[in-house]
Amino acid sequence: MPGSAPWDQIYSQEKRIWGDQPSELARFACTYLKESSQFQKSGDIFILDLGCGYGRDAIFLAQNLPCHILGIDSSARAIEMAREALPRELGARIEFLRYDFSRVRDKYDMIFVSDLYQGLRPQERARLQETVKRCLNTNGLLFLSTFSVRDTQHSSRGIPVEGEPHSYLDKKYIHLSTRAELEADFAFLQISALFEREFYEVRSTENHHHVSWILMGKAK
């Protein structure tokens, strides 16, 4: 599966690289859904977690929301770690699979994409957009986070990628997004939130200072 080998190595060497706490996006999504009258009345929420890693966000969401979650990732090691971390009491509500997101055909009430978009090449970002378009139920929600061009950890670091503004090669590929770019990429949704969030990301090796976009959009 494309892109899986480097992440297999990262997870094997650094283990739970971002610790056990949920991402900024997971906290935001959880708070919104707990307060949403639409989802309070709808019963269990069916969630697709794209690039689920070792499962920290899927587990957090399932612990706090009435939901069923399919978490998929290209890294076999990440999926192995996610299955090992899955609490027994959540085993009936979360499934982790090594799978290509472009092959998903089922419909979901919510698609969750935390810090995957920035690692995708242009054609892969287009494939993710098509997956969201195809797999969101009517009035379903996308929650997505991705690095901003103001991200201090990656901006202007590494080798610029020719023909791709704000893209760099620094051990791995990173793309930084502008507001206008995200608005265009997800114009097929009704974007109800798009804002930057600045935070320190705790990692197993060193803390990183990030500025990320958080986007929430509803299927039209």
Describe this structure in words.
This protein is of the alpha/beta class. It has a single domain, classed as 3-Layer(aba) Sandwich (Rossmann fold). 30% of the residues lie in helices and 33% in strands. The protein has seven helices and ten strands. The protein has helices at residues 4-14, 24-35, 37-40, 56-64, 76-85, 122-135, 179-185, and strands at 45-50, 67-73, 94-98, 108-114, 136-147, 159-160, 167-170, 172-175, 189-201, 208-219. The longest helix is centred in the middle third of the chain and has 14 residues, at 122-135. The two termini are 32 Å apart. The mean pLDDT is 89.
Q: Strand order of the main beta sheet, please?
A: 3-2-1-4-5-10-9
- Large-scale geometry: globular
Report Rg: 16 Å
Summed up, the helix count is 7
Class by helix and strand content? Answer: alpha/beta
Number of strands: 10
Stretches where pLDDT is under 50 for at least 5 consecutive residues are none
- The count of domains is 1
End-to-end Cα distance, whole Å, is: 32 Å
Specify the CATH architecture: 3-Layer(aba) Sandwich
In CATH, the homologous superfamily goes by the name Vaccinia Virus protein VP39
Strand content: 25-35%
> Mind describing the biggest β-sheet?
7 strands, mixed
Order of SSEs = HHHEHEHEEHEEEEHEE
- Reading off the top of the CATH hierarchy, the class is best stated as Alpha Beta
Could you tell me the mean pLDDT? 89
